[in-house]
Write a structure and sequence with these properties.
Strand content: 15-25%
CATH class: Alpha Beta
Number of helices: 15
Organism: Halohasta litorea
InterPro entries: Alkaline_phosphatase_core_sf (IPR017850), GAG_Ulvan_Degrading_Sulfatases (IPR052701), Sulfatase_N (IPR000917)
Protein name: Sulfatase
Radius of gyration: 21 Å
């Protein structure tokens, strides 16, 4: 990317949670229901080989915000909150005089998880649950849970799962509220104000509840056979993956219209000529590949490959084919905004990523499938080859190599085996948080309900 930027630009960082690349026309010509996203393509840098560093929201975002790998920042299943001490590109923008905001119904990206420390304003739709006491309690109880051993987590997780069934859970993605808050935020901007706005749209993420007209358009006829939460992969006996894919498409179709409302709001407020729109997914979604649903237990290509396009008023649209790690957005966003004058070299030959043992799901992994799903994964991609190392809790590792052009399994190259073996383990260490939160028994119901609605715990 040799073009130069001139002056400062606003930034809208728009994350379409769990959006697969093959459901966007910019990546798949057979798709005909992402017209609003497609309107950005001609003027955007479209990254054809963007890859997340973790297949779920919290560590993926922490890597994007800090530029670190998950095993370095430690924000993962082994520690499901950020300390707030890490430097982020949002903090850079704030220090440079930008107003920073976040509109996010995703509880992983809230003050309760330490992920919005550099935002001046946060709308997370938690209402009265969003206060300093609830934030302290949330962090304390999360730390307490994270500190438990595997067996206590399994027992507690299963009891929490049973308890949640007794309560009605708000599983709305709050998309209309999210877009409404974005429209209000953009309408309040002053002409001479530089701003950064993080937005998370949850519709491509399960549970799937797009408006009925989208369901009808995509031919969904029986929602009872569709998994709506991660645990459904283990508990439903009659999953129809074709019906699931149609429902997912309906959700993406709805998401595209929501994107159109946001870009229209930029135009209506005369902000489009000096605003960079970074549109991306933090990870994808498995829709039945190898019998897997969701994104917590797999590093398959539809999950780790991500959408990424950048509509910049000073840069020409083009296709970027080089492999790109999403964590390098922490370097590029300040440049795109105009606070860094020199374009960083953000590309490399090797892609790395992985996930930890899925502690958040110990409540409902069946015992007879424990060894298959309670594992740590690491992946490396280079020169058209991908190697995955999967390790069980006893330290036994298995390796798999795939030719990315053909999709066929191949012998594991020794150089990539050494590369994946060299990836560090997470060291959660001392969190540095010794605040005086109560005794840990109080748990904010709204936050727990929202996590449960997304399929966690």
């Amino acid at each position: 990317m040799s073009d130069a930027t001139s002056g400062r630009n606003n930034v809208v960082f728009l994350v379409l949670d769990s959006l697969r690349t093959d459901r966007v026309s910019a990546y798949n010509e057979g798709i005909d229901f992402t017209d609003h996203i497609d309107e950005l393509v001609d003027s955007s840098i479209v990254f054809e080989n963007a890859v997340t560093q973790a297949p779920w929201t919290l560590p993926s975002h922490a890597s994007m915000f800090t530029g670190q790998y998950p095993w370095d920042h430690g924000t993962t299943q082994a520690r499901s909150y950020a300390t707030g001490d890490e430097e982020t590109f949002i903090g850079q923008l704030r220090e440079a005089g930008y107003t920073t905001g976040a509109v996010t119904p995703n509880v992983w990206i809230t003050p309760h998880k330490g992920m919005t420390e550099d935002c001046d304003t946060v709308e997370n739709f938690l209402g009265s649950a969003d206060n300093s006491l609830s934030r302290r309690i949330s962090k304390f109880t999360t730390k307490l849970y994270d500190s438990l051993g595997t067996l206590p987590k399994r027992i507690l997780g299963r009891q929490l799962d049973r308890a949640f069934r007794l309560f009605g859970v708000d599983d709305s993605c709050k998309s209309e509220e999210t877009v409404g808050a974005v429209e209000a935020y953009l309408g309040d901007r002053e002409p001479d104000e530089n701003f950064f706005l993080y937005v998370n749209l949850m519709e491509p993420h399960e549970p799937y509840h797009p408006p009925q007209r989208y369901v009808d358009t995509h031919g969904v006829t029986d929602e009872s056979v569709i998994p709506h939460r991660q645990k459904d992969m283990f508990t439903k006996d009659d999953i129809d993956y074709e019906e699931l894919r149609r429902m997912y498409d309906a959700s993406v179709d709805y998401t595209d219209d929501l994107v159109g409302r946001i870009t229209s709001a930029l135009e209506a407020n005369d902000l489009d000529d000096d605003t960079v729109v970074v549109l991306l997914s933090d990870h994808g979604q498995a829709l039945g590949e190898d019998g897997v649903f969701g994104h917590q237990f797999t590093v398959a290509e539809p999950v780790i490959n991500t959408v990424l396009m950048v509509d910049h008023p000073d840069l020409d649209g083009r296709r970027e084919k080089r492999p790109f790690e999403l964590r390098r957005l922490s370097d590029l966003v300040p440049y795109w905004a105009g606070i860094e004058p020199t374009e960083p070299n953000a590309f490399g030959e090797t892609i790395r990523g992985g996930y930890e043992f899925p502690e958040n799901f110990t409540g409902y992994i069946p015992s007879d499938q424990w060894d298959d799903y309670y594992r740590q994964a690491r992946y490396v991609k280079r020169d058209g080859t991908k190697v995955v190392k999967s390790t069980d809790e006893d330290g036994n590792a298995r390796y798999e190599a795939v030719d990315l052009d053909t999709g066929e399994e191949i012998p594991v190259p020794e150089d990539l085996k050494r590369e994946v073996d060299a990836i560090g383990d997470v060291d959660v260490g001392d969190t540095g948080d010794d605040s005086d939160e109560q005794d840990g028994e109080a748990v904010d119901d709204e936050i727990e309900d929202r996590l449960e609605a997304l399929g966690y715990r």
